[in-house]
Amino acid sequence: MKKRLIAFLFLPFLLAGCSSTYVYNNLDWLLYWYLDDYVELDKVQKKDFDIKLEGWLSWHRKEELLEYKSQLLDLKKRLNSGPLNADEWQQEFSKGRSHWERLRIRVGPELVSFAPRLTDKQVEQLFEELEKQNLENEEERAESTEAERREERLEDIQDQLKGYIGKLTKHQVQLIEDYEDKFKTNFDNWISYRRNIQQAAKSLMESRNDNPEFMTQLTHLMEHPENFQSDEYKLISEHNRLTSAQMVADLNLTFTPKQMRKLNNKVDDLLEDLDDLIND
């Protein structure tokens, strides 16, 4: 749960536009608002968590934001030298994942050390809420047809792209529609993965008071979530990553001069936000 929590809070600010600095500077408040959906900390736990959170935010601002800035500067330079191919976009996706991996390595051990402090009631509340979300995801999916889900995915992709390059051409819209049919659904595998890793974490948490290997085992679980993914899940995920890279590469070939100006302005806005955060 907590690794999902941290990823939710630290990474999406890059996509938040003009509100990104506000979101980042209020992560402590937002974290507690989000955490409260899972488990309510008592006063002592919250005080100790504040200390950890302050350290995470300080490290992230001083070190990680520089990594984000470096990637954006390099990406802007390369995009203005010519379109990136699918392999190059894959490399960019990989760099993005590396931001998360560094965060996990830095924060994970301290989250693990906090886990034994949870009461039985808090642990029960945590996993009840996680399963509630699983059921809500399943119910939401069951309420729509595949055609409706396809239309929603198309709108999401188009809206995200518009946010960076502005109005799309008819050819670009058609490209997105063509590629949408190449993606494979992974929902059933994903929900099974969630339940598998949640059940493993729950079993560990229930043994936290009498299991001498608890800390080591929970750390291993957090560092190796792929162990709970089925082979089919991994294959489909890789297929979809490759398809995404090729789609973005093909779209990149179609960017008009006006769209490139819009993209450069967008990246400049993000870089300005990063500088504000780094220097704050």
User: Number of DSSP helices?
Assistant: 12
The portion of residues assigned to helices is over 70%
Extract low-pLDDT stretches: 1-19
Q: Mean pLDDT score, rounded?
A: 85
- Could you give a short account of the major beta sheet? none
Instruction: Label the structural class.
Output: mainly alpha
What fraction of residues sit in β-strands?
under 5%
Shape: globular
Q: In angstroms, what separates the terminal alpha carbons?
A: 30 Å
Number of E-state strands: 0
Question: Could you state the order of secondary-structure elements as H and E?
Answer: HHHHHHHHHHHH
Radius of gyration: 21 Å
Could you characterize what this model shows?
- The chain is mostly helical and 280 residues long.
- The protein is 79% helix and 0% strand.
- Helix 1 packs antiparallel against helix 3, helix 4 packs antiparallel against helix 12 and helix 9 packs antiparallel against helix 10.
- It is globular.
- It starts with a helix and ends with a helix.
Task: Sum up the structure in keywords.
79% helix, disordered N terminus, mainly alpha, globular, 280 residues
Summarize the structure.
By secondary structure, the chain is mainly α.
How are the secondary structure elements laid out?
Elements: H1 2-10, H2 20-25, H3 27-35, H4 43-81, H5 86-114, H6 120-142, H7 146-165, H8 170-180, H9 187-206, H10 214-223, H11 231-252, H12 257-279
Helix pairs in contact: 1-3, 1-5, 4-5, 4-12, 5-10, 5-11, 6-9, 7-8, 8-11, 9-10
